[in-house]
């Protein structure tokens, strides 16, 4: 469902993603792990056609992301890292506008919106302004938005950043259901090891733009000789450093803004 | 792809009718534009307070500046009282100020990730840009009504014919579209809020003063005349002056006025559509 070969993106002198080779099968829940600045978001941006690769190739749903970008966009859903629901509209209105943008046929629009609201458990809050939602509700609305047009591949960039553990669990549950009930292929980035451990069938550990390790979480733990290890320890083993949340001034201020909105 | 479990909600992509989903078709394009405009209308309905604060500036221009300059009679406006002459200029200015706001709004949406989500949707870039242009029109129309009311209260002799009113509405929509896409283009280039703040000022003031909004072009020095003649706002005001005022007439003709506004909108939309994806980088 997702194939990349030697996928590379440079920003000036900086190589954010360096010769990435990945293959994600249909129906898989795949996690891209790494600290801020490892290149995870750049990978997602290239796969969702937001950013053209500098070199290399990527195919999503069998379509080249550069040459057939418009077709790729019809097959994918995307939950950006930031909170991108509109606070000045109601939950229902957010869904309605996106159903129109995503060309969901008029005859199916209401049914799809109701189904999405029910799926994420927001029926009761649908007519309220999103501004008054909790952080977890906003994320659930994002998931509802991304599933409206039944994408074959769903990209989630840090889907639980800024959420408390309870809200995080709820988001995980919905992501699992999307894979199991709707057969969607899920590609997510995270820097929470626990998230990767509980959600993903396979993970790729990214460091400085390259894949340092790739496989099922259990196999990766075995590969460092300690099956009882945590994914954090696996990460430290393969990247040579602890998982810290560094990041530039801009990233931090964005994360803070996101968290401020979620409160 | 895994087969869905029994009893699960309808499975994905098999059911979608491919023909109905072609986003390239004109109907799809139009629906995507109007979806964005509808979004704006719904926002405005939830919080109409902005419409009240936005009337302050026209009140100052017409009620203070206009009233004073009508008394000095310093500006030759032919048959028209000065207040009548400047009323369409203030209308165009209100539209301009609303439209210029769309650049900063785009940067705001970029910081929130809304731009990213719009760009990952199947809507074409041109549909997104024109949708924003139409949104600016949606906000500008009620503002236009307020300026009409204000002008009427101050004694401006208004042309109340239906055709003229429709013409003014068209000029408002086109003016809002042209200047919001100009602003969007600038936003796509500078990308950050801090840098755009200065640009917003640097766009609105020259556009306003290098136009026929509050004084006729005939009294300008030569260099400013040239600038005013390449400024689309001049043609917007010219059309509005002919259509809004009982004794108004157009200097350039309504045909050329609307042609200039349409051409500006088309060119700027093409430009903004190319640049818009850069906002997500």
Describe this entry's structure for a reader.
The complex is a heterodimer of chains A (263) and B (281). Chain A has 263 residues and is α/β, with parallel strands linked by helices. Chain A has one domain: Rossmann fold, CATH 3.40.50.300. Helix content of chain A is 41%, strand content 23%. The two termini of chain A are 36 Å apart. The two termini of chain B are 31 Å apart. The longest helix of chain B has 31 residues. Chain B is built from 11 helices and no strands. In chain B, helix 6 crosses helix 11 and helix 10 crosses helix 11. The N terminus of chain B is likely disordered. With 281 residues, chain B is mainly α. At the A-B interface, helix 2, helix 3, helix 6 and helix 10 of A face helix 1 and helix 5 of B.
Secondary-structure element order of chain B, N to C: HHHHHHHHHHH
Structural class of chain B: mainly alpha
Low-confidence stretches of chain B: 1-23
Text of the CATH class of chain A: Alpha Beta
Distance between the termini of chain B: 31 Å
Q: Quote the beta fraction of chain A.
A: 15-25%
| End-to-end Cα distance of chain A | 36 Å
Quick recap:
The complex is a heterodimer of chains A (263) and B (281). Chain A is globular.
What's the topology here?
The complex is a heterodimer of chains A (263) and B (281).
Chain A: E1 2-11, E2 14-24, E3 29-33, H1 40-47, E4 55-60, E5 63-64, H2 69-75, E6 76-79, H3 91-101, H4 106-119, H5 135-147, E7 153-157, H6 165-182, E8 185-190, H7 193-199, E9 202-207, E10 210-215, H8 217-223, H9 231-239, H10 249-262
Parallel strand pairs in A: 3-8, 3-9, 6-7, 7-8
Antiparallel strand pairs in A: 1-2, 1-4, 4-5, 9-10
Chain B: H1 26-46, H2 49-53, H3 56-72, H4 82-112, H5 114-120, H6 125-153, H7 162-190, H8 193-209, H9 222-229, H10 232-244, H11 254-275
Helix pairs in contact in B: 1-6, 3-4, 4-6, 4-7, 4-8, 4-10, 6-7, 6-11, 7-8, 7-10, 7-11, 10-11
């Amino acid at each position: 469902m997702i194939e990349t070969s030697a996928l590379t993106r440079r920003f000036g002198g900086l190589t954010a993603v360096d010769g990435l080779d990945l293959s994600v099968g249909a129906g898989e829940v795949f996690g891209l792990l790494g600290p801020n600045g490892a290149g995870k978001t750049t990978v997602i941006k290239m796969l969702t056609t937001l950013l053209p690769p500098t070199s290399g190739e990527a195919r999503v749903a069998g379509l080249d992301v550069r040459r057939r970008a418009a077709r790729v966009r019809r097959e994918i859903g995307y939950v950006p890292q930031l909170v991108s629901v509109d606070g000045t509209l109601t939950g229902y209105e957010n869904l309605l506008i996106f159903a129109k943008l995503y060309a969901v046929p008029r005859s199916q629009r209401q049914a799809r919106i109701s189904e999405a609201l029910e799926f994420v458990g927001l029926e009761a809050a649908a007519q309220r302004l999103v501004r008054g939602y909790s952080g977890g509700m906003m994320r659930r609305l994002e998931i509802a938005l991304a599933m409206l047009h039944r994408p074959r591949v769903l990209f989630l960039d840090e889907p639980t950043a800024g959420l408390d553990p309870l809200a995080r669990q709820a988001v995980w549950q919905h992501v699992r259901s999307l894979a199991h009930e709707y057969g969607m292929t899920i590609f997510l980035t995270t820097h929470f090891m626990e998230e990767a451990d509980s959600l993903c069938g396979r993970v790729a550990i990214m460091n400085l733009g390259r894949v340092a390790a790739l496989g099922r979480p259990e196999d990766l733990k075995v590969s460092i000789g300690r099956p009882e290890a945590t994914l954090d320890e696996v990460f430290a083993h393969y990247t040579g450093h602890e998982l810290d949340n560094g990041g530039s001034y801009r990233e931090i201020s964005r994360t803070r803004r996101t968290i401020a909105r979620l409160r | 792809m895994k087969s869905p479990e029994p009893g699960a909600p309808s499975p994905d992509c098999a059911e979608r009718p491919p023909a109905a989903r072609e986003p390239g078709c004109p109907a799809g394009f139009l629906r995507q534009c109007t979806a964005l405009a509808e979004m704006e209308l719904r926002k405005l309905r939830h919080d109409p307070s902005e419409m009240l604060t936005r009337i302050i500036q026209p009140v100052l221009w017409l009620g203070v500046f206009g009233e004073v300059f009508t008394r000095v009679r310093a500006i030759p406006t032919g048959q028209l009282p000065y207040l009548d002459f400047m009323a369409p200029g203030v209308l165009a200015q209100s539209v301009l100020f609303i439209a210029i706001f769309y650049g900063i709004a785009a940067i705001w949406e970029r910081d929130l990730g809304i731009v990213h989500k719009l760009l990952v949707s199947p809507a074409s870039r041109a549909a997104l840009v024109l949708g924003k242009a139409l949104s600016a029109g949606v906000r500008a129309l009620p503002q236009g009504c307020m300026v009409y009311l204000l002008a009427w209260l101050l004694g401006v002799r208004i042309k109340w014919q239906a055709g003229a009113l429709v013409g003014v509405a068209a000029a408002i929509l086109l003016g809002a579209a042209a200047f919001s896409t100009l602003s969007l283009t600038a936003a796509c280039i500078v990308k950050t809020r801090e840098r755009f703040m200065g640009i917003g000022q640097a766009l609105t003031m020259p556009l306003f003063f290098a136009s026929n909004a509050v004084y006729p072009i005939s009294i300008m020095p030569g260099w400013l005349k040239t600038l005013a003649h390449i400024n689309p706002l001049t043609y917007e005001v010219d059309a509005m002056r002919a259509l809004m005022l009982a004794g108004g007439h157009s200097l350039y003709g309504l045909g050329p006025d609307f042609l200039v506004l349409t051409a500006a909108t088309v060119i700027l939309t093409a430009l903004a559509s190319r640049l818009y994806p850069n906002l997500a980088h």
